[in-house]
Design brief:
Elements: H1 2-103, H2 107-114, H3 118-132
């Protein structure tokens, strides 16, 4: 009886302890290594490839679009200023002199006598109607 009790105790203790330790060690080692390598590799791969690529492409496209739009706006404004305002304001004195040379008259001397008369109003309204039509 003693031998049987000893054998049963030894076998149960040895088998349970050995198998449990082996099972836990193997499972934990395998599972931890598998989970850590697979999950970390998958997560890093996913993060680096998809998330960063999408994020960088979105930011680059957005920034380039915004910068190009602003640059086009700036160039349009500068060209408008250079092609319209600058020649208009710089050539105004010359155009007055040019018109005086073309017409051969000096409107400053004739202005006070001509202004306010029926002839002035008729000439002004007919010139206005011609320029609008």
């Amino acid at each position: 009886m003693y031998l049987l009790t000893y054998l049963l105790t030894y076998l149960l203790t040895y088998l349970l302890t050995y198998r449990l330790i082996y099972l836990l060690t193997y499972l934990l080692t395998y599972l931890l290594m598998y989970l850590l390598t697979y999950l970390l590799t998958y997560l890093f791969t996913y993060l680096l490839t998809y998330l960063f690529i999408y994020l960088f492409t979105f930011l680059l496209i957005y920034l380039l679009t915004y910068l190009l739009t602003y640059l086009i706006y700036l160039l349009t404004y500068l060209l408008t200023y250079l092609l319209t305002y600058l020649p208009t304001y710089s050539l105004t004195p010359y155009s007055t002199v040019f018109l005086e040379k073309l017409t051969g008259s000096q409107p400053v001397k004739k202005f006070p006598t001509f202004y306010g008369t029926r002839r002035f109003i008729t000439a002004f309204t007919s010139a206005r109607h011609l320029s609008l039509s």
